[in-house]
Each structure stands twice: as C-alpha cells, then as structure tokens.
Amino acid sequence: MFDWLQKIGGSSHGLADIHRRFLEMLQDGRHIFDAASNALLGGTTPDVIRTDLYETDLRINHTEMTIRKELVVHGTVHGASTFPTLLVLMSLVKDAERIGDYAKNIFEIACSGADLGDEASKAFLIQMKDELSKFMVRASNCFDSQNEDDSRSLLKDIDAFQKKCDVHVGELVRSTGRNEAGRVLTVRYFKRTASHVGNIISSIVMPLDRLDYYPDKPMSEQ
C-alpha cells in the first residue's frame, strides 16, 4: 500500500502516517483474534477479556474511519487519476477491519459454551489457531517491508490452511452422533480470517485487477 501511495503523490509525512495506521490495524486485529481464541480454546474466562476485546474492536473501527478520511483528502488534492488506487486501498482497510469482526464471532462462540469435542479435537483447533496467529505476524512484517518473496510464501501457506479448513468442515458436516456446530463455526471463522489476511498480502504481489487472487492459482480455481 505504501508503494502505491508514493506513486500517486502526496507528502511523505502523510503517506507514512497512513502506513503506520494500517499496521496498527493489523496488530490490533491479531491481538483481538488471540484474545477471542484464548477465551474459546485456552481457558480464559470470557468476562476477563470482554472489555479489552470490544475496546480494541472500536479502536480498529476508528482507525479504519481515520484512514478513509485521509484517503478522501488525498484524492481530493491529487485528482481523479488517483481514485482507482484509492478505492482498492479502502478495500484493504475493510479487510483489516473484518479480522476484528470475525474475532468477535469467535468470542461469541466462547460465550455460548459450545461443545468443541474431545481433547484431540480441541488440540487440532488450538494448532490451527496458533498457525493463523503466526500468519498475522508474518502479514504485518510483509506489509511493513513490502517483501514480495516473503509475501508469496505466506500466500501459499494461507492457501494450504484454507484447504485444510475445507477438508475439516467437510468431515464435520458428514459426521453423526454429536452436535458439531461449534467446531464447524470455529473452523469457518478461522478460514474467513485467513482469507482477509491473504487479501491484504495479495496487494504486495498482484496487479490491481487481480487483487485478492493469489499467485500461481488459475482463475478457474479462484
């Protein structure tokens, strides 16, 4: 995003501020995801983190609005030629905001007391949670550095993660004898969170017209 903003003009101070705010959104997204997942899988009492979780979500929303205002100002100053890129940037900001929304969904599962299966089943979900949390750290690093090789590697790992989610959900919906709703929702929310992380990182390696379409993936598979 920072490279795109530099190409369409503007003061380095203003662009650096947008870049910084966006990284803050990613960091807050990881924080809220970890907090919600720990309430669901790590034994944290939901009431202990409730205030912090919703305050963090409000901060993410406020940062999104601030960035959008700065982008509108940027477009007003630099003209219509910047609008296509600015629209894409607003899409990326929405991806970052959606990470917080899915964290709230995960927290709601924790509050519901849903059955997540036996210890082996929970261990599998914890492994997936840890993997996704690491993706978010890598995403922040990739976005800060704009390193294309690291970004492509992360996108491939995210793609594999999403496929694993699909396989697991398929197994759960075909199972009988117990209510698997809690596990199905958890895995689906993990997949959607990973998708939004991938959408953001795709901006580093993909042209604007193929944003959200991961590299080395035929259009028929998108």
Can you walk me through this structure?
This protein has 222 residues and is mainly alpha-helical. It has a single domain (2-221), classed as Phosphate transport system protein phou homolog 2, domain 2 (Methane Monooxygenase Hydroxylase, Chain G, domain 1). 80% of the residues lie in helices and 0% in strands. It has seven helices and no strands. It has helices at 2-7, 12-41, 46-78, 83-112, 119-145, 148-174, 181-205. Helix 2 packs antiparallel against helix 5, helix 4 packs antiparallel against helix 7 (181-205) and helix 6 (148-174) packs antiparallel against helix 7 (181-205). The radius of gyration is 18 Å and the shape is globular. It starts with a helix and ends in a 17-residue tail after the last helix.
The number of domains is 1
Shape: globular
Class based on secondary structure composition and strand pairing: mainly alpha
Largest sheet: none
Secondary-structure element pattern, one letter each: HHHHHHH
- Measured by DSSP, the beta-strand proportion falls in under 5%
Q: What is the typical, i.e. mean, pLDDT? A: 86
Number of strands: 0
Please report the number of helical segments: 7
Termini gap: 23 Å
CATH top-level class: Mainly Alpha
Q: Looking at CATH, which topology would you report?
A: Methane Monooxygenase Hydroxylase, Chain G, domain 1
CATH superfamily: Phosphate transport system protein phou homolog 2, domain 2
Which CATH architecture would you pick?
Up-down Bundle
